[in-house]
């Protein structure tokens, strides 16, 4: 098993290094396998496609997130549980900061990889929504679906903001304190609204999507306030 993990790491490292040196599109599976010192068939024992060798293992991480949410105590505040689940995703990147930074540089250069990453990370947000819905009494759920969508979106956005900030740092340190500070701001703003007991009308298909436009430098607490105001406008 250790040898299999080592081979996977070598293949990932080779894929990232070659993509940085020659471009992702120009890099072939054969070149990745040769650089890692393994056969082509070994590559496909570990990865379905070249993209999988560059992107994080979101499938495995999502399983860990879902297992954590399923095992959470019903006595724990739901948003705190979701925030801790988001930390599990950060842990995947923080386990190997050097690889995370190099991988980010590859993804940043390749629009197709960015789309793959966005699609993969959106599954975490859906897991958060599913968990929040399950924690709400069935009789109240229809009136709180929007609340849960907004809360899950806010946690995911906070995670993504912190992750990008950390990856862009010259010498990334511990990402957890950054996330703790940021998510505390966001949850402080959102929790009273989520727990207010004032249910919004059930969402219609046209209301399912909310877009907030703001400068990149907007503080997280102000983004959270904007989301809350847009989701629960004054009468």
TrEMBL record:
Domain HTH tetR-type: 5-65
The UniProt record lists the keyword DNA-binding: yes
Keywords, comma-separated and alphabetical: DNA-binding
SUPFAM superfamilies: Homeodomain-like
Source species, domain of life: Bacteria
PROSITE patterns: HTH_TETR_1 (PS01081), HTH_TETR_2 (PS50977)
Keyword DNA-binding included in the entry's annotation: yes
Designated name of the protein: TetR family transcriptional regulator
């Amino acid at each position: 098993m250790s040898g299999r993990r080592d081979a996977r790491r070598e293949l990932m490292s080779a894929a990232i290094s070659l993509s940085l040196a020659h471009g992702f599109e120009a890099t072939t599976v054969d070149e990745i396998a040769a650089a890692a010192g393994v056969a082509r068939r070994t590559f496909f024992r570990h990865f379905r496609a070249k993209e999988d060798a560059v992107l994080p293992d979101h499938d495995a991480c999502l399983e860990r997130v879902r297992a954590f949410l399923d095992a959470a105590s019903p006595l724990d505040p739901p948003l705190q549980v979701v925030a801790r689940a988001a930390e599990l995703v950060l842990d995947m990147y923080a386990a190997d900061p050097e690889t995370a930074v190099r991988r980010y540089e590859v993804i940043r250069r390749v629009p197709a990889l960015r789309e793959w990453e966005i699609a993969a990370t959106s599954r975490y947000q859906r897991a958060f929504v599913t968990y929040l819905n399950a924690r709400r009494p069935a009789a109240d759920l229809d009136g709180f679906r929007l609340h849960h969508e907004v809360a899950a979106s806010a946690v995911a956005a906070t995670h993504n903001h912190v992750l990008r900030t950390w990856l862009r740092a010259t010498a990334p340190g511990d990402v957890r304190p950054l996330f703790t500070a940021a998510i505390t701001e966001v949850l402080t703003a959102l929790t009273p609204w989520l727990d207010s007991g004032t249910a919004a009308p059930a969402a219609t298909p046209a209301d399912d999507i909310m877009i907030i436009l703001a400068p990149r430098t907007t503080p997280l607490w102000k983004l959270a306030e904007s989301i809350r105001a847009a989701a629960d406008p004054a009468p």
